[in-house]
Specification:
- The protein is α/β, with parallel strands linked by helices.
- It is about 40% helix and about 15% strand.
- Strands 1, 2, 3, 4, 5, 6, 7, 8 and 9 form a nine-stranded parallel β-sheet that branches.
- α7 (about 185-205) links the parallel β7 (about 170-175) and β8 (about 210-215).
Length: about 240
């Protein structure tokens, strides 16, 4: 039995965030429909996800493959919603990702790419992926190092090998900038990812570098102003995660 009060709570906050997305897009002179709202369900119980589905949430993002697949199996709703993998993926979890997700946001190494390519071939699919870049230079973050533009050529051999993999479809880039209470402080990092996207678009025009996955509950409006096409919002819609 779905908790109707929880459905109402989530629906109200979901609509509020969508309205803020529209406003941010208009400020930036962009079409609001060009921006997708992904709801992060990391560590949220199935009951909350069920309520979110009733509240008309369409795209869910998970950080841990096994947790996500377990939720998918319990919910058993087929293609009614999209599941995206947004967290770091260990190579040994590549099979789960290749089989169970509509989009991987966090492809962060050539080694992982090759494993995903092999498993995607086994499942007879072409896996859509985003390449993760570390624009803040933080050691705690994953992704190719992209904080220093003068060193961008260093990761091009990896990208060229990755782009040759037949069972992966690169659709754009993702980043997690340093955390700031003031969203404006994140703006240079979002801008850096957009500049990187433009740089790669010029080098590899055969690839559709359309997606920029960046921005969370605290800074998604700034991210949209800087070009985000997917924003990842969790607690601002679903409330705090259970302890």
């Amino acid at each position: 039995m779905v908790d109707e009060s929880l459905v109402g709570f989530i629906r109200e906050r979901y609509i509020r965030i969508q309205t803020q997305i529209v406003d941010a897009a208009r400020i930036a002179g962009r079409a609001p429909e060009s921006i997708q709202l992904l709801v992060v369900t990391k560590k949220q119980p199935v009951s909350v996800i069920e309520a979110a589905i009733v509240a008309d949430v369409k795209i869910f993002g998970e950080n841990y493959p096994e947790e996500a697949v377990s939720k998918q199996q319990v919910l058993n709703i087929g293609n009614k919603v999209e599941w995206h993998m947004i967290g770091h993926v260990q190579s040994r979890k590549a099979r789960l990702v290749a089989e169970n997700f509509a989009l991987l946001h966090s492809l962060d190494s050539l080694k992982l790419a090759r494993r995903l390519d092999r498993f995607a071939a086994e499942f007879g699919r072409k896996l859509p992926v985003l390449l993760e870049f570390n624009v803040g230079g933080e050691e705690s973050k994953f992704g190719w190092q992209a904080s220093d533009e003068s060193l961008w050529d260093n990761f091009l051999p990896d990208l060229e090998a990755l782009l040759s993999l037949e069972n992966l479809e690169v659709q754009g880039l993702m980043t997690m900038p340093p955390f700031f209470e003031d969203a404006e402080l994140a703006r240079p990092y979002f801008r850096q990812l957009r500049v990187l996207r433009d740089y790669l678009s010029a080098l590899y025009p055969q690839v559709k570098w359309e997606q920029l996955s960046m921005g969370t509950s605290v800074d998604f409006q700034v991210a949209i102003e800087e070009g985000a096409t997917i924003v990842r919002v969790g607690q601002a819609i679903l409330g705090s995660r259970p302890v």
